[in-house]
């Protein structure tokens, strides 16, 4: 069997590596002309995602490049400490969730796939595909094409494959928030290493953590009408945080704003597969960054898909099995993440209610068992 994989983000290379483990050849096709070595700010790889990477024996470089971030402390914009919750649950060997530069994670999984002999072609933007009883052929914008037994879409929240598979598929859903990120590269400490400080400001949400070297990694979520782009995002953010009793405005002002993107997720996608074509990762179930689970879900998908293709008779049965094993879990994560995102875009009245109720919610969810469904989930080949 040969798989054509559309997209070389995180899901594409990990899917190819998982398929290779069960004896399936894969080739990755990336729409952009060059690798995404300098794209994006940073993200969370939760403990369950690191556990999945370990199943692929691809976790070591990720751990080296990331910052251990096992805890989150919540604050109001007035400086009130609202409570604390775990950022994932430690694995049996003590491994905790890590924060890593998005470009580093891309590079690590891509380079590991290449090291294992998996071919990657760039500048191959999918425009259509055609299938028959024996194969599927992908056609690309540059006029080339490729054929295989199955086609796996790992092309993200704005997936071209999803719209080809089902023209009636739901469009990405704007969360009402723009996402920003930056790093202040100096030796001044603004918090305890390994702790995310999450601040529900009066006008926007702010989060930051510090590395052992003293660098401060920050992100912000700003409620905004989609497409309402000011001439200077940095000035807009500083103004949004100016009235809060914390370091958010100072940190934004001291560095550069490296990312300004609208946050989207996906409502439930009815059709994950048809014929020889299957959606995975964000193409099937994009979640907002608020849960810190996007990368982890894609890696879990890769392993479950490979196991299904190994264990079931034929791709049709494998795709059905994959959906049965994954749909309920990933849709629960999407819903969880949306709930968090909605709280970040709360209006004045909702903010007061949120700040009153959040300490109660955090106390109830502080125990290991409450989020074990998310972080203790183990997939294997």
UniProtKB/TrEMBL annotation:
Coiled coil: none
Keyword terms of this UniProt record: Monooxygenase, Oxidoreductase
Membrane-spanning residues: none
Ranges for domain FAD-binding: 2-337
Pfam families assigned: FAD_binding_3
Domain of life where this protein originates: Bacteria
Name of this chain's protein: 2-polyprenyl-6-methoxyphenol hydroxylase-like FAD-dependent oxidoreductase
Organism the protein comes from: Nonomuraea africana
Lineage: Bacteria, Bacillati, Actinomycetota, Actinomycetes, Streptosporangiales
